[in-house]
Amino acid sequence: MKLVKTRQELAEIVTQWQREGETIGLVPTMGSLHEGHLTLVRALDGKATRRIVTIFVNPIQFNNPDDFRLYPRGLEADEALLAQTGLVDILYAPDETQIYPPGFSTRVIVSGLDQMLCGGDRPGHFDGVATIVTKLFMQTRATIAAFGEKDYQQLSIIRRMVTDLDLPITILPVPTVREADHLALSSRNRRLTATQRTQAAQLPLALMACLAALKAGNPIPASLDTCTRALEEAGFRVHYLELRSEKNLAPVEKAEPGARLFVAASLGDVRLIDNMPLS
């Protein structure tokens, strides 16, 4: 595995790969890697002949400066973890000058999908996501990219963007990877105190209980209210809890397959998200 830090060096390698007929798989990340990221890397098995993992903590997708400052970072540990897999050809870890050079003034906006759910209390977040992902698609020239379903709204926005802009890349969704107590793996989990980590396990449990109530025929509003109260009693501040369509993230009126339960909730200053399908 080669560590690359400049877009020029990356371009030289990718150009040679393309001359040799290689196909490129991409896993974009913000670092602080865990098993969920490695699952994305392995998901590219048989789908690309070369694999690139990118690490870039993207400043324009953070609406809270403290969140950006406190986001976990550790390039050396991430590099070692990826090298151990023997699956990654390039770790691309550019600095901000390689992504947003002086005078950079372009944003990619996916209208509609960016306003709901996480977009409601994180203004500009998904503009930043769409912009950096487009940049990474262009710089790596990937033919396929793997994204986790944990951030299903992000996945939906990227799919829409690829379709709308006719980008020549396939988006590969990968199911959420969870801890033994069902908490979704996330780099943000490392910021939880020991007490908060115990509390955090109540998030997936509350979602599963809510889905069970919906499948049993309980009304959607009552089921969501019960779940919200359970989370608040566990110490969470709930930003949203909604049942929406997997297809277009629109609110649904019936609890039936094709719907998905979405939540964002905070413990202290650590914001956690999760979603589960109603299947």
Give a concise summary:
It comes from Acetobacter farinalis. This protein has helices at residues 7-19, 35-43, 65-70, 75-85, 96-99, 118-121, 125-140, 152-164, 194-200, 202-215, 220-233; strands at residues 2-4, 24-29, 50-55, 90-92, 144-148, 170-174, 237-245, 259-267, 270-278.
Could you walk me through the main structural features you see in this protein, from its secondary elements to its overall organization?
It is an enzyme of class 6 (ligase). Pathway: Cofactor biosynthesis; (R)-pantothenate biosynthesis; (R)-pantothenate from (R)-pantoate and beta-alanine: step 1/1. Belongs to the pantothenate synthetase family. ATP binds at residues 30-37, 148-151, 177, 185-188. It catalyses: (R)-pantoate + beta-alanine + ATP = (R)-pantothenate + AMP + diphosphate + H(+). The protein is α/β, with parallel strands linked by helices and 279 residues long. The chain has eleven helices and nine strands. The protein has helices at 7-19, 35-43, 65-70, 75-85, 96-99, 118-121, 125-140, 152-164, 194-200, 202-215, 220-233; strands at residues 2-4, 24-29, 50-55, 90-92, 144-148, 170-174, 237-245, 259-267, 270-278. The strands form two sheets. Strands 1-4-3-2-5-6 form a six-stranded parallel sheet, sandwiched between helices. A three-stranded antiparallel sheet has the order 7-8-9, covered by helices on one side. Helix 8 links the parallel strand 5 and strand 6. Helix 10 (202-215) runs antiparallel to helix 11 (220-233). The model has no long low-confidence stretch (mean pLDDT 96).
